[in-house]
Amino acid sequence: MPTPSGRTSKAWTPRSKFTATLLSVRVEDTSTRGLLMVRNTSGELEQLRTDRGDTEVGRAMIERARALLGHRLRVYRVYEQMAGNPKMQLRTVVHLTDYGPDTDPMHEHSTKKNVLAAAEGDTDAARRAWVVAGLPESGSVSVTQLVAALAEVPNAGAR
């Protein structure tokens, strides 16, 4: 079955799409793939990849994702085998449908967990990112504020 980007993939199934908020977009130095960090509807972070940035499709997806930071999206992904290790699979984004900016407030406990997860458990790095981004000690946090905090986490999304 063809994907929204025109690919044909056995991995393309109805379960390969979900709603999430896009929180960060980085480019991995070694592969030139875009690394997208999204927050799914259960509040957990998930990292996805694009095609290689040195291809037209990959470059276009990276630029589209950058334009959609902080937006709620319908994410379409496929599972692709890694070239160097066929037993490993990558979650690759093939299409993003924009539902507009995510304006729902998030509980600070949930967002602190997200920043800590992005910092790979480094509480000092997570705390610095929280403070530098100017997030409140208590109360709700906006998606824009969470995006700002994640931008301060060293190498967030570049694992």
Task: Write up this protein.
This protein has 159 residues and is an alpha+beta fold. It has helices spanning 56-67, 108-118, 123-132, 143-151, and strands at 17-27, 33-40, 45-52, 71-81, 89-101. Strands 3-2-1-4-5 form a five-stranded antiparallel beta sheet. A hairpin with a 5-residue loop joins strand 1 and strand 2 (33-40). The protein is globular.
Discrete helix count: 4
Name the average pLDDT: 86
Global outline: globular
Oligomer: single chain
What composes the largest sheet? 5 strands, antiparallel
- Succession of helices and strands: EEEHEEHHH
Helix/strand/pairing class, anyone?
Answer: alpha+beta
Strand content: 25-35%
Topology:
Blueprint lengths: L16 E11 L5 E8 L4 E8 L3 H12 L3 E11 L7 E13 L6 H11 L4 H10 L10 H9 L8
Antiparallel strand pairs: 1-2, 1-4, 2-3, 4-5
Helix pairs in contact: 2-3, 3-4
Quick summary:
This protein is α+β, with helices and mostly antiparallel strands and about 160 residues long. Helices cover about 25% and strands about 30% of the residues.
Protein traits:
alpha+beta, 26% helix, globular
